[in-house]
């Protein structure tokens, strides 16, 4: 009964919202509060139906190993004032990562935005006549002052989304308009790997549909979050051969717009910003063995999490950012301990966040960066030990 009512409400709201597909600019509408409420009901309903057995797994803090108890006091992100020191003239900053020289690398959309006219009902990009973005979309910044050190990626992309720099400085990007993900070797203009078909959305394993994000393991395995329409993750070997689809039909996991990825290799988990389910869920990554393949995902879901847009790993912890969800939920950063399935800290810059979209941690653990799509900007945070009581 409850389900039926929720579904009917939901259909009406989706119809009222135009194409009814999630995009980033659909906030601040008059019907937003209502829409959010319906989504919340829907996700509660779904949560009860599908996730209850997983959440009932005993994972009390007192059974946690000693080193996760220490994680009760994680380092706190503190916004670096006056960083970047110069105006960068950015479009929507959809992606951020950090290269091997510990420099932040950002992916932005220049003048292009994602709104309700960008795609039609069948997920086809409607603005290909504009051509690719002419400006450089990938900028490498100086970590100290935020000055632009390098520019790349003009005349290649239509609607940038995720960016990941791996430890060999290969650039992995997704373009939601092209429905593709790419691997570029440093400086090269031709991708060495291409996933999905150009401007051709699809749901078989040769196609992607508005892919959001890529994670690359030290073993070379590749995870692509696909994305806004298919709500799945594809796992490939280093050569681009498909290994697995997450969730597999037997897996007790249902994703709803997987929007960001973070690997924690030490515990063999792939943490997913499961955006419209308003949670972070960490299924087995399956990097080193198939042992534990059947173990349920670690799932972090709390009433105040909101729609989780980005995740980044630091040690065994995950730093995440949510985005506007409802008037009652602050837009903020969350520090998460996946092993105890708990949120252990909340944080935000004094000025507050607008629309955080992606987050990255510096490989040496000293800083993290948050990219926003309105106001368009990039934040640097230093990670400082918590104040003693
Ligand atoms: C980490 O990298 C940043 C950026 O290059 C640097 O300023 C900082 O000193 C490094 N910290 C450590 C602990 O190595
Ligand atoms: C969406 O656009 C594509 C190409 O622009 C077109 O082939 C397709 O028929 C359109 N779908 C609908 C439902 O209009």
From TrEMBL:
Catalytic activity: a [peptide]-C-terminal (2S)-2-hydroxyglycine = a [peptide]-C-terminal amide + glyoxylate
Start and end residues of each stretch annotated as Disordered: 55-75
Record-listed E.C. numbers: 4.3.2.5
GO biological process: peptide metabolic process
GO cellular component: extracellular region; membrane
Keywords, ordered alphabetically: Calcium, Disulfide bond, Glycoprotein, Lyase, Metal-binding, Repeat, Signal, Zinc
Cofactor note: Binds one Zn(2+) ion per subunit.
Cofactors: Zn(2+)
Residues the record lists as binding Zn(2+): 161, 259, 357
Pfam family, any one: NHL
GO molecular function: metal ion binding; peptidylamidoglycolate lyase activity
Disulfide feature: 209-229, 271-282
Residues where Ca(2+) binds: 96, 163
InterPro entries: 6-blade_b-propeller_TolB-like, NHL_repeat, PHM/PAL
Composition bias, Low complexity: 60-69
Coiled coil: none
First-level EC class: lyase
Binding site for a protein: 109, 228, 275
Signal peptide: 1-20
Residue windows of the NHL repeats: 146-187, 202-239
Protein family: Belongs to the peptidyl-alpha-hydroxyglycine alpha-amidating lyase family.
Function: Peptidyl-alpha-hydroxylglycine alpha-amidating lyase that catalyzes an essential reaction in C-terminal alpha-amidation of peptides. Mediates the dismutation of the unstable peptidyl(2-hydroxyglycine) intermediate to glyoxylate and the corresponding desglycine peptide amide. C-terminal amidation of peptides such as neuropeptides is essential for full biological activity.
Protein name from the UniProt record: peptidylamidoglycolate lyase
Organism of origin: Phaedon cochleariae (Mustard beetle)
Lineage of the organism: Eukaryota, Metazoa, Ecdysozoa, Arthropoda, Hexapoda
């Amino acid at each position: 009964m409850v389900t039926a009512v929720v579904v009917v409400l939901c259909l009406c709201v989706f119809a009222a919202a135009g194409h009814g597909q999630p995009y980033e600019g659909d906030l601040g509408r008059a019907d937003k509060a209502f829409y959010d409420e319906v989504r919340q009901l829907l996700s509660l309903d779904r949560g009860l139906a599908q996730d209850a057995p997983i959440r009932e797994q005993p994972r009390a803090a007192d059974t946690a190993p000693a080193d996760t108890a220490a994680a009760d006091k994680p380092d706190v992100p503190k916004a670096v004032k006056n960083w970047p020191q110069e105006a960068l003239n950015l479009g929507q900053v959809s992606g951020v990562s950090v290269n091997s020289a510990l420099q932040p690398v950002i992916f932005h959309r220049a003048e292009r935005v994602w709104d309700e006219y960008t795609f039609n009902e069948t997920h086809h990009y409607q603005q290909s006549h504009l051509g690719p973005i002419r400006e450089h979309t990938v900028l490498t910044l100086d970590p100290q002052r935020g000055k632009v050190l390098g520019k790349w990626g003009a005349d290649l992309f239509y609607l940038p989304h995720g960016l990941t720099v791996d430890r060999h400085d290969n650039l992995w990007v997704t373009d939601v308009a092209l429905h593709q993900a790419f691997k570029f070797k440093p400086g090269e203009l031709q991708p060495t790997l291409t996933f999905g078909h150009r401007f051709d959305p699809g749901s078989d394993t040769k196609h992607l549909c508005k892919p959001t994000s890529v994670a690359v393991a030290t073993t070379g395995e590749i995870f692509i979050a696909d994305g806004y329409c298919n709500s799945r993750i594809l796992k490939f070997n280093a050569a681009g051969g498909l290994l697995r689809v997450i969730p597999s039909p037997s897996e007790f996991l249902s994703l709803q717009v997987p929007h960001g990825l973070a690997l924690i290799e030490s515990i063999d988990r792939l943490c997913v910003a499961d955006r419209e389910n308003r949670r972070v869920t960490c299924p087995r990554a399956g990097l080193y063995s198939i042992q534990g393949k059947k173990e349920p995902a670690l799932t972090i879901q709390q009433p105040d999490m909101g729609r989780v847009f980005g995740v980044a790993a630091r040690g065994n912890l995950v730093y995440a950012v949510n985005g506007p969800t409802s008037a009652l939920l602050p837009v903020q950063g969350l520090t998460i301990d996946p092993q105890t399935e708990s949120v252990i800290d909340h944080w935000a810059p004094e000025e507050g966040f607008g629309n955080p979209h992606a987050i990255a941690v510096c490989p040496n653990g000293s800083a993290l960066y948050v990219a926003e799509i309105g106001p368009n900007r990039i934040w640097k945070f230093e990670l400082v030990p918590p104040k003693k009581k």
